[in-house]
Amino acid sequence: MSAMTGPTPGEVVIRLSDVSKSFPPNVLAVRGVDLEIRRGDFLSIMGPSGSGKSTLLNLLGLLDVPTIGRYELAGVDTAGLADKARTSLRGRELGFVFQAFHLLARRTVLENVLLGMSYSGVPRGERRDRAVTALNRMGLAHRVGAYPPTLSGGERQRVALARAVAGTPTVLLADEPTGNLDKATSQGVLELLGELNADGLTVVVVTHDHTVARAAGRRHTMDDGRLREAA
Amino acid sequence: MTNPFTRRTDAFGVRDVVVEAILGLAGRPGRLALTALVVVLGIGSLVATVGFAQTGARQVQARFDAVTARHGLVKPAADQAQLGAAPPAALPWDAAERATRLNGVTCAGTITKLDPPPGQVTASPVHDPAAAPTRQPQIMTATPGLLDAVRGHLHEGVWIDNFHEQRAERVAVLGVRAARLLGVLRVDNQPAIFIGATSFTVIGVVDQVEYAADLLDAVIVPQSTARATLGLTNPGELHVGVELGAGPILSGQIGLQLSSDNPSGYQVVMPPPMSSTRQQLTADVNSLFLILGFVALAIGGVTIAVVSSMAVMERRGEIGLRRAIGATRGAVAAQFVAESAILGLLGGLVGTAAGTLVVTVWSLARGWTPVLDVRLAVAAAVTGVVVGVVSGLIPASRAASLEPATALQEGT
Ligand SMILES: Nc1ncnc2c1ncn2[C@@H]1O[C@H](COP(=O)(O)OP(=O)(O)OP(=O)(O)O)[C@@H](O)[C@H]1O
Ligand SMILES: [Mg+2]
After folding, report:
1. Could you give the percent of chain B with pLDDT greater than 90?
2. Same domain, yes or no: B59 and B80
3. What backbone torsions phi and psi does residue B205 show, to the nearest 5 degrees?
4. A34 vs A228: CA distance, rounded Å
5. pLDDT digit string, tens, across residues A139-198
6. B193, B199 Cβ separation under 8 angstroms
């Protein structure tokens, strides 16, 4: 992690204050959530289907806006940010991993990882090295020229992980990253998350998998829109 | 807010938009080809239509130039008892020489119909006044330059030359129908015909003229000969060969050249200015087919819009991902506009090539010269891009307005 530009270790990078999100007509997906995440934290969020986990993660990811409440990311109050500023902040501070991978099928593994840096202002000259480094780290050095449809599920998720971290975000947001993977493969991905966290990356993972949840330093459960931290 | 560590050159720029658009299109080559094909049809039919029109107009123009635009006619003004109208002026005997001295005149000759005829025309000197009257050819006079001025063609023999004219030789050229009437089948044996009792040696037969079609029915003798022996009082009309575009100037000059006393005593018909006839022709041929071409192009535009809208729906996941990794709404919109602009450009280029090919093959099959304005090719390609951009605006704004969270969830 780039210690020069990011917050110092232990500093609060995410602060939610009494955040709620409702969808029309009257779904209260997230209710009054207060949450502080510090640099280097590893958070897991578990909970029944429909309890609001993805909604909360979208709020953290600046992909959606709270109906009420205050959200500060990397010291910036995100309320009232215009699209351009939100997007810039998102591209710089956040990395995403999804259950559905969201890799472009007609781009090679390397191109998919490069794409992850193309909007975020990483210097052009550094992108290839960073992509290759990230892919090496994910154990995919031999698949850089492959196309996603030829990869296994675990490999695809590791490509997505490489894409998410190649641009050195402050926080990695993962929504059920092992949801489409078998147990052994999940274990591999989980180990990678652990390694990244050990290197200083802040990780928030939404999961149904107890093994994944237990790996996190801070475990949370979500129920009917309310977030509770396990002791 | 912008990232203070982002240099301008590292930001997502126009080049990135174009590259992403090309990759996006290249990923679906079949769809690319089909969509572009519709634009190809539109642009191609436009280019072909304009090409046909230009080639056709050029062809008509060439014929028009060759005939109408190169002939002038001067005769004494009609004797109207009109107040203020100039009195008619007779053509001088040397009208043809005078006209030829003017710039822009390529050839000139006078022609006069002898009416009433000075005598009966027969193929033999034996004159039988009691015989039933036969159908008679006309009798006309001409000067050496006339044959060229009326674009005439000799079937055989020779035309009246300067020697005949200066010496008032008793020679005659027959129009092809007059020759048949008189039973003159060949001229190499120097047959004689008679006007009254005077004999004339037949030296040639004229079988085609563009003007003064009466010549084909006539016995034609040199003007000087007719003046000396047949009582011709003055020339009837002057035919002039005119250089392209010289008509308007000549109509102002020729009267003075023929008569300094009464320059406006003539009725002058000269070819109209070139430019106006050319534009007229081109404009007339184009309009209907041009409309059809634009209709085809509009269909091409609608096709791009529909296919791109479908693509936006299919690619929701990709759009959501791009937003998540830092693409602004504007960047997403730009990518989709760029994709349809490139589609339009491809369609425009291929359509221009196809239209040009069709026009070329069509022209060559007729032995015509294909005419295609280079500016037309450029305009066609630009039109393709414009159609692409306009058609891409709606799908692009749809893509941009997708909520990233929803797009990611619904898309794969
Ligand atoms: N865009 C939306 N419009 C309306 N309702 C929504 C929207 N997104 C989520 N919801 C509703 O909000 C509630 C929480 O949904 P969310 O996707 O956050 O649940 P989740 O905990 O992620 O569930 P799962 O474990 O099944 O992924 C659900 O009732 C869902 O129907
Ligand atoms: Mg969910």
Report:
1. 47
2. no
3. -130, 130
4. 9
5. 999 999 999 999 999 999 999 999 999 999 999 999 999 988 898 889 999 999 999 999
6. yes
What is the distance between the alpha carbons of residues A64 and A53, in angstroms, rounded to a whole number?
13
**Ligand 1: residue whose CA is nearest its atom 12:** A29
Q: Which of A99, A75, A98, A76 is nearest to A86 (CA)?
A: A76
| CA geometry: angle B364, B365, B370, nearest 5 deg | 30
Instruction: Answer yes or no: are the C-beta atoms of A224 and A52 closer than 8 Å.
Output: yes
A89 CB within 8 Å of a chain B CB: yes
Do B108 and B38 lie in one domain? The reply is: no
Q: What are the beta bridge partners of residue A12? A: A38
Q: Are residues B83 and B169 in the same domain?
A: yes
Collapse the DSSP code of B1 into the 3-class scheme (helix H, G, I; strand E, B; otherwise coil) and give the result: coil
B84 dihedral zone (left: phi>0; alpha: psi -120 to 50; beta): left
Provide the residue range defining the domain that includes A76: 12-220
pTM attached to this predicted model: 0.69
The per-residue DSSP string of B118-129 comes to SS-EESSS---T
**Residue B19 lies in domain:** 14-64+277-411
Confidence band of B79 (pLDDT split at 50, 70, 90): confident
- Residue A158 inside a domain? The answer is yes
Would you say residue B124 lies in a domain?
Answer: yes
| A93: its two tokens | 């501070």
Q: How far apart are CA B87 and CA B262, in angstroms?
A: 8
Reduce the DSSP state of residue B373 to 3 states and report it.
coil
> Best mutation site among B321, B403, B406 for testing chain A: the one with the most A CBs within 10 Å?
B321
Does the N-terminal peptide bond of residue B133 adopt cis geometry, omega within 30 degrees of 0?
Answer: no
Residue with tokens 């509009």: B298
CA separation (Å) from B119 to B127, B175, B232? Answer: 11, 18, 13
Distance between CA atoms of residues A21 and A32, nearest Å: 9
CB contact under 8 A, A98 and B408: yes
Interface contact A100-B2, CB threshold 8 A: no
Q: For tokens 């949801």, name the residue.
A: A179
ipTM of the complex: 0.93
